[in-house]
Amino acid sequence: MAHYNGKESVKTEKSRQKKQRAKQGKPLSLQGFFVPKIENPAVVVETSFKEVKVFDDGQMFKAALSKNLPCNKVLFPGDRVKVEDGVVTAVQERKSTLSRGHRDGTRVNAVLEDKIVATNVDVAVIVVAAKEPPLHPRFIDRYLIVLQGSGIEPIICLNKADLMTESDSQILSVYEKLGIEVVKTSTKSGEGIEELKALLKGKDAIFVGNSGVGKSSLTNTIANLSERTQNVGIKSGRGRHTTTTSKYFVWDKDSSIIDTPGIRALDVSGLSIKDIQNFFTEFAGLNCKYRTCDHVHIDEKDCAVKQAVSSGRISKLRYESYAKLVEENCEKK
Ligand SMILES: Nc1nc2c(ncn2[C@@H]2O[C@H](COP(=O)(O)OP(=O)(O)O)[C@@H](O)[C@H]2O)c(=O)[nH]1
Ligand SMILES: [Mg+2]
Ligand SMILES: [Zn+2]
Fold first, then answer.
1. If residue 117 lies in a helix (H) or strand (E), which one and from where to where?
2. Which atom of ligand 1 is nearest to the CA of 161?
3. Which CATH number fits domain 24-92: 1.20.1070.10, 2.30.30.140, 3.30.1700.10, 3.40.190.10?
4. Domain 273-330 belongs to what topology?
5. Where in the chain is the domain with CATH 3.40.50.300?
6. How confident is the model over 119-166, as pLDDT tens digits?
7. What pTM was computed for the model?
8. Which residues have C-beta atoms less than 6 Å from ligand 1?
């Protein structure tokens, strides 16, 4: 028979705290390391197994990790840390994390942790291009889904505006109507650059989007226009098999950009049909014959959404993006 010995209750209290922390999405191993605010923090720009590279006072330093801090699983580019005598001793509570997966509330935190791309960004600029590579709502929608609930504000940037076509502006207007900030830029003509800078001033931003859309050109343009440009090459915290690098720029006071090489695999699996439909807010208020209509496996005569697509009220490309998400998420047996 178990007797109360005082120790047991401590253990129970500890495991309760552990569970509590797990619920809050904080890695257990960082217990005691996360602090609300660090005076003059250094920024993590690269993590490896044993050490991190940090950007501090305009310079890059290597810092070791306190032995309780298993680095490349718990520290990510953008983390604000306290470095004492060359050792990271504390991590500032993150204001945000950008993951390659969405949050559906059911996943183990460890899974999401694994997919973190960067932390502490305010704004994610989803960069797409006119003409090349072709603008496709599917790419934008996937980023928007991943950003949902992250506290990171999405901005859509159509770059190569010098090559813009009528169909590009039709697609963009869909997002404008949804209330998302859209900016059109060209690093060739300079169009929209000041507007983009104004949106990013005083914020920590990350540029995401497919390769070839102009993320690096935009970053360089913005950074070169400023005299206080600082440029640091960093590796994304995505494991040792990737050779891709991100770049961290401080281009103005309290204004930084992480230029990413493009996030290869955005994981938007595990969504319910409700999740998906909630995301396509332009479908709201349309009454199909059946209340549980999935707007895919049904005759057009019974589906108000399909009718709205035919009449042009709903963008065909957005509908295709929707149907693809339904197919990927809701048809697995
Ligand atoms: N026409 C046009 N081409 C651009 C513009 N911005 C970038 N490019 C070109 O697009 C290509 C890809 O640019 P890059 O910045 O490397 O794209 P990233 O892969 O997203 O970083 C390069 O050949 C650039 O010269 C633009 O505003 N207009
Ligand atoms: Mg690039
Ligand atoms: Zn329907």
1. strand 116-119
2. 27
3. 2.30.30.140
4. Ribonucleotide Reductase Protein R1; domain 1 (1.10.40)
5. 97-259
6. 999 999 999 999 989 898 988 998 998 888 788 999 999 999 999 999
7. 0.80
8. 159-160, 162-163, 186-188, 211-217
